[in-house]
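Form 7-S
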Amino acid sequence: MAKAAGAVRIGIGGWVFEPWRGTFYPDGLPQKRELEYAAGHLTSIEINGTYYGSQKPESFARWREETPEDFVFALKGSRFCTNRKVLAEAGPSVEKFLTSGLTELKHKLGPINWQFMPTKRFEPGDFEAFLKLLPKELDGVTLRHAVEVRHDSFRSPDFVALLRDYGVAAITSADADYTQIADVTAPFVYARIMGTKEAEPKGYSEAGLKRWAKATQVWAEGGVPEGLETLAPPARAQARDVFLYVISGDKVRNPAAAMALIAAIKS
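Output:
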């Protein structure tokens, strides 16, 4: 009997990137149709522009309309929320970001990635104050939160325990020099893999694709993949949704890697 598994979403960061024209996007495809095309070949996209500035409610609504019914967007939280000395003071910025119209995505709103700079250290009291600012629901839409930390001071069982208390995911950043924390701390898993190489037609070698396809399936079934370092005892095994994005690396190959992973998991 097959194990129960959560839904798996695999995608890339953004959809506007000139080198993808003619490599991922067909020659002659109008730019206004690139999101429609990308969403037809992937199952999720992480929107990076929300990190740098506000988007209009009309934009979120248009993105919802231009994508398939089961498509999901992850969003980067605003840098004005996370790039600050005292996180406890981020309340007005968090509220401004969350009320900017992102709930127009409705059921297509996936996790929010609150990304921190490599210089940001783990200060338990202040970080917990930030987690308390993150609501679980807004305008009838469930909000799922994840944090991407990049300082080794976060490599602590106390950090893992704190995230579990609030049901916030620790983003697994892999195949890069960033701090890696692979502990499962939420009802879902969020991973960003950054090891694509232009010399590989599919971004990763066949062995690399097999490894990440397997890891994704293990996460979805509630397990802990081999080869990823964790800091605390594993969470209770249960089926979990998985959001995996092929980011950075040799970006021109990221769509090919994401599509190869989607095909590997379906096979």
